[in-house]
TrEMBL record:
<keyword id="KW-0456">Lyase</keyword>
<keyword id="KW-0413">Isomerase</keyword>
<dbReference type="GO" id="GO:0005737">
    <property type="term" value="C:cytoplasm"/>
</dbReference>
<comment type="similarity">
    <text>Belongs to the DHNA family.</text>
</comment>
<dbReference type="GO" id="GO:0016853">
    <property type="term" value="F:isomerase activity"/>
</dbReference>
<comment type="function">
    <text>Catalyzes the conversion of 7,8-dihydroneopterin to 6-hydroxymethyl-7,8-dihydropterin.</text>
</comment>
<dbReference type="Pfam" id="PF02152">
    <property type="entry name" value="FolB"/>
</dbReference>
<dbReference type="GO" id="GO:0046654">
    <property type="term" value="P:tetrahydrofolate biosynthetic process"/>
</dbReference>
<dbReference type="GO" id="GO:0046656">
    <property type="term" value="P:folic acid biosynthetic process"/>
</dbReference>
<dbReference type="InterPro" id="IPR043133">
    <property type="entry name" value="GTP-CH-I_C/QueF"/>
</dbReference>
<protein>
    <recommendedName>
        <fullName>7,8-dihydroneopterin aldolase</fullName>
        <ecNumber>4.1.2.25</ecNumber>
    </recommendedName>
</protein>
<dbReference type="GO" id="GO:0004150">
    <property type="term" value="F:dihydroneopterin aldolase activity"/>
</dbReference>
<comment type="pathway">
    <text>Cofactor biosynthesis; tetrahydrofolate biosynthesis; 2-amino-4-hydroxy-6-hydroxymethyl-7,8-dihydropteridine diphosphate from 7,8-dihydroneopterin triphosphate: step 3/4.</text>
</comment>
<dbReference type="InterPro" id="IPR006156">
    <property type="entry name" value="Dihydroneopterin_aldolase"/>
</dbReference>
<dbReference type="InterPro" id="IPR006157">
    <property type="entry name" value="FolB_dom"/>
</dbReference>
<keyword id="KW-0289">Folate biosynthesis</keyword>
Length: 116
């Protein structure tokens, strides 16, 4: 399987269970691996024959600016489902991390894998 990847994608969203986290957007960092055959696009050189990573980033920025998630797990599931259902991915790995949440810890997060 071919993999399209988007690494260290920073986006702001409302994420968390504490009162402050419900009103102040926080940055999260995502690494996305998107399983999708690139053979047709490799032959045609046409963006319509693959998953347009610019569209993925644009959609995520737009949608996540409007949503609120309590847990990173829910955010990761939301992203995975969007990639599978809306972009036609066959398989995804989604890593989502919050930055500087605890003293001495650079980031905390979750990694999930899902298939169509």
């Amino acid at each position: 399987m071919d993999i399209i990847f988007i690494d260290s994608f920073r986006v702001e969203t409302l994420i968390g269970i504490y009162p402050r986290e419900r009103i102040v957007p926080q940055p999260v960092v995502m690494d996305l691996k998107i399983g999708h055959s690139t053979a047709t696009a490799g032959a045609s050189d046409d963006i319509h024959d693959t998953i347009d990573y610019a569209e993925v980033v644009k959609r995520l920025r737009t949608v996540l600016a409007e949503k609120h998630f309590l847990l990173l797990e829910k955010l990761a599931e939301f992203v995975a489902t969007m990639l599978l259902e809306d972009f036609g991915a066959q398989w995804v790995q989604v890593s989502v991390a919050k930055l500087g949440m605890m003293p001495g810890v650079a980031r905390v997060g979750v990694v999930i894998e899902r298939s169509a």
